[in-house]
Amino acid sequence: MSANADQQEFWTNTVGADWVALQAVMDASFQPVLDLVLESAGLAPRQSVLDIGCGAGTSTVQSADLVGAQGRVLGADISQTLLDRANLLAQDRAHVQFVLADAQTHAFERQAFDHMISRFGVMFFDDSTAAFVNIARALRPGAKITMACWGPAPDNPWFMLPAQEAQAHLGKPPKADRSLPGPFAFEDQGRVIALLQAAGLREVTATTHHILLTPPGDAEAFADQQSVIGPVNGIIAHFNGSDADRAAIRARIIVACARFETPQGLRVPANINLFEARA
Questions:
Q1: 5-154+176-215+268-278: which CATH architecture?
Q2: Is 278:142 a contact under the CB 8 Å cutoff?
Q3: Residue 46 CB: number of other CB atoms within 10 A?
Q4: pTM to 2 decimals?
Q5: Domain boundaries, the chain
Q6: Which of 64, 110, 238, 249 can pair with 173 through a Cys bridge, CB separation 3.0 to 4.6 Å?
């Protein structure tokens, strides 16, 4: 059994199909984060890249376009549901492969990659230090690691605004430990630097990037998306909320996110931690 069996179940059977259905929306929303990763990584033709937590494959495909047909990109994810979509996305790129893998324990090819990248894919390990020890075995000496993760939750309204509106309507569920596997497990830069160093990585740095996420559509579209993916479902489930509660929360989100409307569309501010290191 995978060391991250709960995460495998969650991303395969609980939310995997929803993420596939909303792939275009999620890709558009998070493209500025992927741009940050790829620009910071500095991928070049003929290089080999390991994409951890590749999801539906957008980060893998864009990496493949940078390294070219003489390069190689391997996307690894714990969800077969997401990888099925990834394989369709990359079917015309022979230098792209995907593997169903728990990166904490998978036997990757040793010293095979020049880069490891991740966009929001490394915050879900049961044992993060063990995961990076294992991943490092797949990297050539000096290989670069570039990872984007969510910064502190209060600084990220993409999550917090819908959660706050749901809580304002239904109440606050018990406070969760955000250091556990989940979207904000890497919000504390100091803690993450220490675990990366404990994994034997060197030249570990963390920088904060304030960027604007670019969800397509208007406030109503954003509210609809957040009704499917994000914290709203969990809060509704905790309080045994009704369809009427869901509709009321949706209406609150529409009003609240009007502050993000611009002539170019919605622009949602985000605080992103960029971690870089060397094998």
A1: 3-Layer(aba) Sandwich (3.40)
A2: yes
A3: 11
A4: 0.91
A5: 5-154+176-215+268-278
A6: 238
